[in-house]
Amino acid sequence: MSGEGLTVRDLRVTFDGFTAVDGVDLDIRPGDLRFLIGPNGAGKTTLVDAVTGLVKATGSVRFGDQDLLGRPVQKIARLGIGRTFQTATVFEELTVVQNLDIAAGAGRGIWTMLRRRKDVPEPVARALETIGLSDLRDRPAGVLAHGQKQWLEIGMLLVQDVRLLLLDEPVAGMSHDEREATGELLRRVSEDRTVVVIEHDMDFMRAYARSVSVLHAGKVLSEGSVAEVQADAKVQEVYLGRASEPEPTPRPAPAAAAASVAEEA
Ligand SMILES: Nc1ncnc2c1ncn2[C@@H]1O[C@H](COP(=O)(O)OP(=O)(O)OP(=O)(O)O)[C@@H](O)[C@H]1O
């Protein structure tokens, strides 16, 4: 495995006196496929927001030999750091290949990018292959299935030569087959890049994580392999302790996650 790793030290994010990320340390080695899990409100998305420059933070965040904290969002993106959000943000009216072409940018004019072409640039062709959308390259992105849109979005990061991908719940709302295909895609992508996945789906996490960090109340509660995290009594307590609370959003409930985390412990 190759690529750069992500090192986070004493990361803190505060919103009007409320500390959402409270002294987080992370060492994510090059080529890792790290899952960030934890109950709703644990600080997972805020942590990723801090790494990508969307919220102000203190502490230190390094990717390879580059300091990220305090740099503007665009500069961080230019250092090879890209993210997806829970809702895919593709251009629905444009074709798959046009979406990739625009993401690749590469100094071409807009009309060149929008023209339908037989030959696509090599990085775009490679991304199409990696995300499994070669056959659908000339379809408008708007007609793609939910899972395919997420893969296209990952492809849009690949053509930008992103070397650290931060993905926010990439399999939410996907079918079983789409989840499997996404897991395999993440494995391929992480062969020569570093991948961080925020996830609530514990089955998916167990099947594909190379390492796991559990966040709770803004802190790292536990870290290690899937087996180590599942065996950690603190993790079981946090999930099981919330089992009777109502779930505010229609995603897999902490109760289900708790059962799933604890199941093999
Ligand atoms: N812009 C903001 N202003 C104030 N509070 C915020 C802001 N963004 C997040 N928070 C709070 O910070 C805490 C952490 O939120 P965050 O979205 O990072 O959690 P999460 O672990 O990603 O949760 P989920 O799994 O539900 O997405 C929550 O209590 C949330 O309400």
From TrEMBL:
Domain ABC transporter: start-end pairs = 6-242
* InterPro entries named in the record: AAA+_ATPase, ABC_AA/LPS_Transport, ABC_transporter-like_ATP-bd, ABC_transptr_urea_ATP-bd_UrtD, BCA_ABC_TP_C, P-loop_NTPase
Q: Does the keyword Repeat apply?
A: no
Which molecular function GO terms apply here? ATP binding; ATP hydrolysis activity
Keyword Ribosomal protein in annotation: no
Region entry Disordered, spans: 241-265
Q: What GO terms fall under cellular component here?
A: plasma membrane
**What are the record keywords, sorted?**
ATP-binding, Nucleotide-binding, Transport
> Which domain of life, per UniProt?
Bacteria
Looking up Gene3D superfamilies in the UniProt record yields: P-loop containing nucleotide triphosphate hydrolases
Locations of Low complexity compositional bias? 254-265
PANTHER family, alphabetized: CONSERVED COMPONENT OF ABC TRANSPORTER FOR NATURAL AMINO ACIDS-RELATED, HIGH-AFFINITY BRANCHED-CHAIN AMINO ACID TRANSPORT ATP-BINDING PROTEIN
In its UniProt entry, what is this protein called?
Urea ABC transporter ATP-binding protein UrtD
- Whose protein is this, by species? Streptomyces asoensis
Tell me the classification of the organism that encodes this protein.
Bacteria, Bacillati, Actinomycetota, Actinomycetes, Kitasatosporales
Originating gene: urtD
